[in-house]
User: Fold these one by one.
Assistant:
Number 1:
Amino acid sequence: MSIDIIIAVVIFLAVGVYILIRYIEEKKKYQKNYVPMLLSYLEKYQQEREEFKERAQNFKEKIKQAEENLKKIKENIKNYQWKKRDIERLKQLKGTELETVFTGILEILGYKITEPAIYKDCNIDFIINLEDKIYALILLTLKSK
């Protein structure tokens, strides 16, 4: 019986030593890979940084193009020839869609528009600011009975 215990202890000791040796080897291998791992992280960071710079630059260019297009629209708004279908479309607008279209048109023309919720109760759809003067715009819609 004591021989069985000694054999079991020797087997557990051998397995324990093997586990310890494998652990130490893996730890050394992991420590050797610190520098390459950090270098790969650095390389990945630099690539992502360059990609972000490119995306940011593209976004800035798109914003500049949009600003230039808006400037051209503002300059040429006086020369716009209204077509019959445009006029018919404006005649058919009602409610929120009408407010949205007119707000956009007035902003393009250079007016500063505010839409406070307080004035909605008083049937004021939006407020136009122009050179220290404030105008309240009420869009009347006829209700059919």
Number 2:
Amino acid sequence: MMILAGCGNRQTEANERAACEGKDATPKESINACTKIISSKDPDTETLSYAYLYRGISYDHLGRAGEAKADFEQSLRMLPNNALAATNLGALHGKEGRFTVAMQYLDRAIQLDESNPFAWRNRAIALERLGNFPKALEDINRAVALDGADHLAVAERCWLNAVTNQKLDQALSDCNLALATQPESSNILNSRGLVYFRRKQFPESILDYDAAIRGDPSEPSSFLVRGYAKRAMGLDEEGAADIDKAAQLSSEVSSFYATIGVPDEVQSVPPGSR
């Protein structure tokens, strides 16, 4: 969607429009350009809606969530069929843990535009956080089908297949693809660690959790499943230490993993096969 600025000569208008949309502009430059458009004389409703939208995106990039939320809401009030505003507002609520509210906006965004992979991906994340893994998988598959280059969607599909213990070959391929663009991502390494654990490739699982913990030593699940993998390798004391560390970090993490069948499926590897 192109914004038509309401004042100035054509070149200035074009420059402001491009900067507002974030083209060759820093977030601060984009905010300034969008503010100029918003403050210009009698811009039309669509112009204003998209100016608020793009300014909100730039605020979000700068971590200014309150201002981003206000701009997304204003964009949607001015143009109720602005699917991108609904998508970004839903994504912002999701990042802040309001997944039920996020779902309302993301449902609306998808109703308005089913071709937006960002909406499908963010709704999948919200559904996952709400515990609806089958529906989350449906949504993330739509997101990847629409944009296979979106490494965040590919990483989310890896995680969801690992959680539900299905399509583990696809899950491994997805995590490998995502790690090719973010090789030090603790989240993706954590996901691939679970994939390897499900595949009973315990040494590989431990290596991935080692790397995940180096990047983020505050994530309890990395210690927990690494502990289970060590225990499966016969490293009982080391495994117990990791499991205890996970419990110190979170009193709930082991309960979640128990609900998805971890570590109930684990069999210790035969002696001498380590």
